[in-house]
Design goal:
heterodimer; A: 317 residues; mainly alpha; B: alpha+beta; D-Maltodextrin-Binding Protein, domain 2; 2 domains; 6-stranded mixed beta sheet; 3-stranded antiparallel beta sheet; globular
């Protein structure tokens, strides 16, 4: 939902009118737009249209059956008196703040391990990437639920070491760690990007550092981190946006209810329940737009602060 | 590689299929209202339920089609929770199936908003129905639903489990205190291996029955709440001393076992719920026999019990095949052979024609016998609950669950539920 505006900005073709040979250029433009047309039509009909109508609906009381009634900002103001809404914000922020950095740390650590030349690296890379391919699927959520349930493998494994937590699925204090483990386990996508970034770092830098007697820790903080910072920034941004949108696994593991005791009531899940179970589409639309705005602000903050820690090659700083 | 010819073929095929799809859209609107054996009309029918119900429904559909060669029925089903989300989106798009299995909780939401066909305008035979039952499918003089069958509230227990604990079987004439003591006894005698039951105060319909036992209406005719915060506090306090003991299964266990019920999973000795769950419980638990007794009441002359339509048959207001839809509904509620297919898995057949044409034996007989045994206590079926009732029922369950998790006190839970209920009533006013 919220990803499409970002996508669109990137994929819009540059205006061809600025090119010199205008005659040839006109034909090129026509061809370009013709080829773009199927996508453009779909984008307008399936993304822009619904987004505009959802913006309108967010100012109305709309129950899907009767025509929407304009109520101004009411949906937005009642949101902040809705305890379940506030709970869903808390749950989602907890997930984003703890889940994303842990996932990126895991991705970077594994990427660094896989970056060295060793036999069978191709196999390891595929093996570590696999979970993120199947991770968003319904079946994994079901498997996860079984694994962390009462007398599931996790419960039994921990009991073997004398830790008796019981099933995690029914315990409100343990559901969040379970979801964070699920997302950390799916580190494949950022890992691949980290791996590509690591390959870009010239080996001479490490060689020179070794000559100067730098240890692995020093090398990491003085070479790897700054050289990789644009890639880290990209991954951080994408994973944060992605984390705000967690839905499928939450829906399945909690039977679509956000339980136990509201501990898995993620933002999008509550939005969905409001829209499709309670028939309050206006309210759900307001929630959707609030999410767009908040994610937009967070992205902006990331970009602003990035100047102080992201180094692009060729930068004088 | 994509070459020019290849590309053009793809485009041509794409355009052609798009045109064909568009033609389909037009085609259905131009086809007539009735069909013939050579050119039957097709109606869509959807229901919720498990595989067992799907199997029985398919049999019923096949029977209907063989008796009505001019109509084809296209069946489709999902589970209960997903069912309503699907209907909501279909209704918004104007594409509800022609005939649908329906629940009382959602009758007003769709009926009052003109999504359902007034069935008094088509030919459906309701002569074999109890006159007291039909109003539950009616709103403001219009008939939106015909009950297929009835169910009543009951306490289930597994006699074998009680015998192994040395506990005498209950006879069902018990006060709330006696019922609570019974639950505690199971917990203490089994040393925690078996819980007494699930917290019955988390079940909306049981609360509704308790209100009726105290001569309080759940909802006023104007669609407001008919009970006070104090009533709800009293209700949730009924099991306050039982929560966290062996009498009531802990909430985290309930969550783990979901979507199976604790009773079906053999984790509890009793369950307070609708009597048509018999087949499901037997299948889930593997028990040989399950018995039914009436719910507790502090006034044995007023058990607060009633027969509710366990499900209704409705038609979409926009159906193009009113006649075919009416004939299918009539068949599903009245035909004795349909009764023979479903037995009590939909509840006890509401139509006398269907009921008398069905032979009940074994556990099906237990359900029918239970409904007979409580006949003298039965009061009128409730009217269709208020708009948005499905949401209220779900939040009742959720807040009671928070109460059992210890996240809320009884006072806090009561405030939370009233806030949501009042907000919802204001929203739909």
């Amino acid at each position: 939902m919220t990803q499409s505006p970002t996508l669109s900005r990137r994929s819009t073709a540059p205006a061809p009118a600025q090119l010199r040979r205008s005659k040839r250029n006109g034909a090129d433009a026509r061809a370009g737009y013709t080829f773009l047309l199927p996508w453009l039509l779909g984008f307008i009909a399936l993304t822009v249209g619904p987004m505009i109508s959802s913006l309108y609906l967010s100012f109305t009381n709309y129950n899907l059956f009767e025509p929407p009634k304009w109520i101004g900002l009411d949906n937005y103001t009642t949101l902040f008196q809705d305890e379940r809404f506030l709970q869903s914000v808390g749950v989602t922020l907890g997930y984003v703040v703890f889940g994303t950095p842990l996932k990126l740390a895991a991705a970077l650590a594994v990427a660094m391990l896989l970056n060295s030349k060793r036999r069978g690296q191709g196999f390891y890379r595929s093996a570590f990437y696999a979970p993120s391919l199947i991770g968003a699927s319904v079946s994994i959520a079901i498997v996860w639920k079984a694994m962390f349930g009462d007398s599931g493998p996790v419960d039994q494994g921990l009991s073997f070491f004398g830790i008796n937590l019981g099933g995690w699925v029914g315990n409100p204090a343990m559901t969040m760690p379970m979801f964070i483990l699920l997302t950390v386990w799916q580190f494949g996508a950022p890992m691949v990007i980290f791996l590509a970034g690591l390959k870009q770092i010239p080996n001479e830098l490490y060689e020179a550092a070794s000559m100067d007697g730098a240890g692995p820790v020093r090398k990491f903080f003085n070479i790897t981190w700054p050289m990789l910072s644009p890639v880290i920034f990209f991954n951080l941004l994408m994973e944060t946006i992605h984390a705000f949108q967690i839905f499928a696994s939450a829906y399945i593991i909690s039977n679509g209810e956000g339980g136990p005791a509201g501990s898995t009531l993620f933002y999008t899940l509550y939005l969905y329940l409001r829209g499709f179970s309670d028939f309050r589409m206006g309210y759900a639309s307001a929630m959707a737009w609030l999410l767009v705005i908040v994610v937009g602000i967070i992205t902006l903050i990331f970009f602003r602060t990035s100047k102080s820690w992201v180094h692009y090659s060729g930068d004088s700083r | 590689m994509i070459n020019r010819r290849h590309f053009l073929t793809t485009v041509a095929v794409g355009t052609a299929s798009a045109a064909a799809l568009a033609a389909c859209g037009n085609g259905s609107s131009s086809s007539g209202q009735t069909g013939t054996a050579e050119k039957p009309v097709t109606i869509n029918y959807t229901w919720w339920g498990n595989d067992d119900r799907a199997e029985r429904t398919r049999k019923a559909i096949a029977l209907f089609e063989s008796k009505n060669p001019d109509i084809k029925v296209n069946g489709n089903f999902t589970d209960f929770a997903g069912y309503w989300q699907k209907r909501a989106t279909e209704a918004a798009g104007g594409g509800l199936p022609d005939v649908m299995q329906w629940d009382l909780s959602y009758l007003r939401d769709y009926g009052q908003r003109n999504q359902l066909l007034d069935l008094s305008t088509v030919k459906i035979n309701t002569e074999a129905f109890e006159k007291s039952l039909l109003p539950s499918g009616q709103i403001k003089g219009k008939t939106y639903g015909i009950p297929t069958s009835t169910n009543a509230f009951a306490v289930y227990y597994d006699p074998a489990k009680l015998a192994s604990l040395g506990i005498a079987e209950p006879d069902g004439s018990w006060s709330y205190k006696e019922f609570n003591d019974f639950l505690s006894q199971v917990g203490s005698k089994s040393n925690g291996a078996l819980y007494g039951g699930t917290d019955y105060t988390g079940v909306w319909w049981m609360f509704n029955i308790w209100l009726r036992q105290n001569n309080i209406q759940a909802f006023t005719p104007e669609g407001k709440l008919g009970f006070s915060k104090d009533d709800l506090k009293k209700w949730w306090n009924l099991t306050a001393s039982l929560r966290g003991t062996g009498a009531i299964i802990p909430e985290d266990r309930v969550t783990q076992l979901a979507p199976k019920s604790p009773f079906g999973s053999n984790a509890t000795a009793t369950e307070v719920t609708w009597d048509n769950f018999m087949a499901g419980y037997l299948g889930d638990s593997g028990a040989k026999e399950l018995k039914l007794v009436p719910v507790p009441s502090d006034n044995q002359d007023n058990l607060g019990l009633f027969l509710k339509p366990s499900m209704l048959m409705v038609a979409s207001a926009k159906t193009k095949f009113k006649d075919a839809a009416a004939r299918f509904i009539d068949f599903m509620v009245n035909d004795p052979e349909v009764g023979q297919i479903f037995k009590t898995s939909r509840g006890v057949p509401a139509s006398k024609t269907q009921r008398d044409g069905t032979t009940f034996d074994g556990t099906d007989k237990a359900v029918v016998d239970y409904e007979k045994s409580i006949e003298k206590y039965l009061k009128d079926a409730p009217e269709p609950p208020i708009v948005g009732f499905g949401t209220l029922e779900a939040s009742f369950k959720r807040i009671a669950s928070d109460l059992n998790y210890g996240k809320l006190t009884v006072d806090g839970a009561t405030d939370a539920w009233f806030k949501e209920a009042e907000d919802l009533i204001k929203q739909n006013a």
